[in-house]
Amino acid sequence: MSLWYIRILFLGLSTMGGFAISQVRPEWIGGGMWGVLIGFGFGGLLIAVDEMLKGFSLRAFSATSFGLLLGYIVALLIDHSGLFENVQDTTRWLIRLALFLSFSYIGIVLAMRSNKEDFSLIIPYVRFAPQNKPDNLLLLDTSVIIDGRIADLIETNFLEGLIIVPRFVLKELQQIGDSNDPIRRARGRRGLEMLNRLQRSKRIEVKIHDGDFPEEKEVDAKLVRLARNLNARLFTNDYNLGKIAELQSVNHVNIHEVAKSLKTILLPGEMLQLRIAREGKDKGQGVGYLNDGTMVVVNQAQNLVGQQVEVQVQSLLQTGAGVIVFAEVKPSLTA
Predict the structure, then answer these.
(1) What pLDDT is stored for residue 35 in this prediction?
(2) pTM
(3) For helices 182-200 and 167-177, what crossing angle results, to 10°?
(4) Which domains does the chain have, with CATH numbers?
């Protein structure tokens, strides 16, 4: 909305400028009304051009300018090469026009298709990226923000960089938070709370990115394209989104996979401090859980439910749902 304030101000200044010129130079513009109309039309034309260039990034503009300059230089070299010295003046201007239009177009197209590595080959000591900004961009999707473990990873210095949250992801969070379904509404509000927590963190910077791809209807497709354009790592808990990113060679991280990799590795004989949460299925057994959710079945612990005990690992059983640990209570507690 603030952009429209600037546009309205610019339109007003253009209108007043047109009127002022009509008063100072009446021979240029005949009458104050014509000055107002010309100034208003000029301002409106620039605002229309601005609206048409919505989504045209600064990188695209710089690439276009660079390509236009290269095309102009090539066309100028050909024009001064002596190939057209014997051509009549009435024909030579047509040749010049064709040369400049053709090579300018080719230069713009080639520049738009190129990346910064191609530019560094042409200009080896110039980089089109600020060196004082972190290159480690972390692009978050909705599932990771709602999950919240990304904040814990940042606060423990496991992750560093610049957090990027697209505005279309923020909009999706707001829509989930306004849902009539109480479960979805709770998830959406949790996501907004986690985002506020990230913004308050002093360990990392969070940026709301305005980039969008109107031609893409799905949020997942927008995320993959944005990650590729920004050369950012995409953080998600969505298995399908991760596979799509992998197929398109986009760097991504699945928080669930990270959590699996960081689960505690136990070996028989190790001692654990464990709270017995409930009774087990078999007689005399008690069940407790590690911090990562791993279930520990403790023999001779049925009468210790609710107590913090020291147990010794006996064996481990790998199942489809994860690892189940079997342990024995320290002998002094069962005596």
Answers:
(1) 83
(2) 0.49
(3) 140
(4) 7-50 (no CATH), 137-261 (3.40.50.1010), 271-334 (2.40.50)
